[in-house]
Amino acid sequence: MKSSNKPARSIWMEEFLNSKKLAFKPTPLTFIHPNGNESSTIDYIFVHSNLADKVNNTIRLDMLPNNTSDRYPLLTEIEIEMDSGKEKDKNCTSNKIKWDKIDLLQYQECLTKSLQENIIDFENDPNCNN
């Protein structure tokens, strides 16, 4: 017997969201059963927990005449501030890579390693609005 009234899927989802510091706000029913009835929510908008208060509105687009899917698309408004970067660009210098003079295999290996090790730290990254 289960010790919790929550379905296993819900428990797994909560554990996953917490481990990745993700959040979501409830969304309306998005799945249309073949009998035509709206039956469940199977689509979600996940954001990092630092951005959760920036999600203003999520609506389902149920009035689209050309939607032939068994799911309603979602539209979400997220309030963010973006820096144009123009001030930063003035101080940056561009180093053009001389592709014909580099070891492409070494470059690929270094790039792959860097991308695999690079984890965005939303809490401490100065480019993320906390």
UniProtKB/TrEMBL annotation:
SUPFAM superfamilies: DNase I-like. It comes from the Eukaryota. Gene3D superfamilies: Endonuclease/exonuclease/phosphatase. This is Uncharacterized protein. It comes from Mytilus galloprovincialis. The lineage of its organism: Eukaryota, Metazoa, Spiralia, Lophotrochozoa, Mollusca.
